[in-house]
Automatic annotation (TrEMBL):
Residues 4-405 form the Ketosynthase family 3 (KS3) domain. Pfam families: ketoacyl-synt (PF00109), Ketoacyl-synt_C (PF02801). GO terms for biological process: fatty acid biosynthetic process. Keywords: Acyltransferase, Transferase. Belongs to the thiolase-like superfamily. Beta-ketoacyl-ACP synthases family. The lineage of its organism: Bacteria, Bacillati, Actinomycetota, Actinomycetes, Actinopolysporales. It comes from the Bacteria. One of its GO terms (molecular function) is 3-oxoacyl-[acyl-carrier-protein] synthase activity. This is Ketosynthase chain-length factor.
Length: 407
């Protein structure tokens, strides 16, 4: 693919438990600082799982107009701030772009659960007249796309993808399609946040949450003591543009290009058929025109359940050879952010390309059986030209995305 045909990332907006903003997040990530701790947004003492990655100290009134606060869930408030940061990072003023040339494609795994819980409490305790009229959309999966587009006057192709953890990569792929069809700019990625009793109960129903009480040994993918994941809130939003158009407005070096994408669905449980993760990765590499030996790092899905970890590690060992490529899972410091996790990993991969360093996987002591080169005990300097990001969602969704340095 020539430079003029590339869909590139020109701006990053990060809202993560370890940092609100790109550089704060990146500094904490390279240092391996973890934000996993006991939940503070509600009393978790009655629940079997009590740890999460929270974005602490976020005051929406410091970032958004007061009229938006009662209309929006915390998830949407974080997404709006993330979009603002992404535009600023890309040096784009939305009002200067034709409104039908900009679109928004996000993902969501839960919608605005906390807002919905609050309004249901009002309904049960006080009656329907106390339910906010904003409940009609504040809980909805598509609300982030809608609110970002309204705030920034964006009337181009937009949408939402709902496929749990894999959805964030699926949204970026859809954003890439829209750029290739001629749209000038797409905001894409995801921010999820459902750390409330209603959302927590829904997450517990998966049976995949860690019940550990030690934050440093709670979320342990590829570790002999793996026992499930720790949830978190946040994610990343990215500005996607055509390389030629970005260059024409003065962008000298985009973060990277979205070079390849693949997605599959696993067969139903109990059929005895193998998982389809390898096919998703192979499809992404084929779409990118990349050979396995051209991938410099893999950002793993990191389910932290022994069976799912074995599927992922065997996929990587099978495609790249035993310990054939560095693998990292910085999400052990933030928790799994559901649909926000994949875009945050893509943003992290962009920063790895920019700075020539692979961030570590905090807290994990990898088991020999996995036969992967997991980066632990600090960042690793490396020439990163291409990175593979993997995301898998509950229900068998598999997505993989390749990012590439732009010359």
């Amino acid at each position: 693919m020539t430079g003029n045909e590339q869909v590139v990332v020109t701006g990053l907006g990060v809202a993560a438990p370890t940092g609100l903003g790109v550089e704060q997040y990146w500094e904490a990530t390279l240092k391996g600082i973890s934000a996993v701790d006991r939940i503070s947004r509600f009393d978790p003492s009655g629940y079997p799982a009590q740890l999460a990655g929270e974005i602490r100290g976020f005051v929406p009134e410091e970032h958004l107009p007061s009229r938006l606060i009662p209309q929006t869930d915390r998830m949407t408030q974080l997404a709006l701030v993330g979009a603002d940061c992404a535009f600023a990072d890309a040096q784009v003023q939305p009002k200067e772009v034709p409104e039908y040339e900009m679109g928004v494609v996000t993902a969501s795994s839960s919608g605005g659960f906390e807002f919905g819980q609050h309004e249901l409490r009002n309904l049960w305790s006080q009656g329907p007249q106390y339910v906010s009229a904003y409940q009609s959309f504040a809980w909805f999966y598509a609300v982030n796309s809608g609110q970002i587009s309204i705030r920034n006057g964006m009337r181009g192709p937009s949408g939402v993808v709902v496929s749990d953890q894999a959805g964030g990569l699926d949204a970026l792929a859809q954003g890439r399609r829209q750029i290739r069809k001629g749209t000038q700019l797409i905001v894409s990625g995801s921010v999820d946040a459902s750390l409330c009793p209603w959302g927590w109960t829904a997450q517990l129903s998966s049976g995949r949450l860690s019940t550990a009480t030690d934050p440093e040994r709670a979320y342990l993918p590829f570790d002999p003591e793996a026992r499930g994941h720790v949830p978190g809130e946040g994610g990343a939003l990215l500005i996607l543009e055509d390389f030629a158009r970005a260059s024409s407005r003065g962008v000298r070096t985009p973060y990277c290009s979205i070079a390849g994408y693949g997605a599959t669905l696993d067969p139903p449980a109990g059929t005895g058929r193998p998982a389809n993760l390898p096919r998703a990765v192979e499809a992404a590499l084929r779409d990118a025109g990349s050979a396995p030996d051209e991938i410099d790092v893999v950002f793993a899905d990191a389910a932290a359940l022994p069976e799912l970890d074995r599927v992922e590690s065997s996929t990587l060992a099978g495609l790249f050879g035993p310990r054939g490529v560095p693998v990292t899972a910085p999400k052990t410091a933030t928790g799994r952010l559901y649909s926000g996790a994949g875009p945050l990993d893509v943003a992290t991969a962009c920063l790895s390309v920019r700075d020539g360093v692979i961030p570590p996987t905090p807290g994990v002591r990898p088991a020999e059986e996995h036969d992967i080169d997991l980066v632990v005990d600090g960042p690793r300097e490396a020439r990163v030209r291409q990175a593979l990001v993997i995301a898998r969602g509950h229900g068998g969704f598999n997505s993989a995305l390749v990012v590439r340095a732009v010359d």
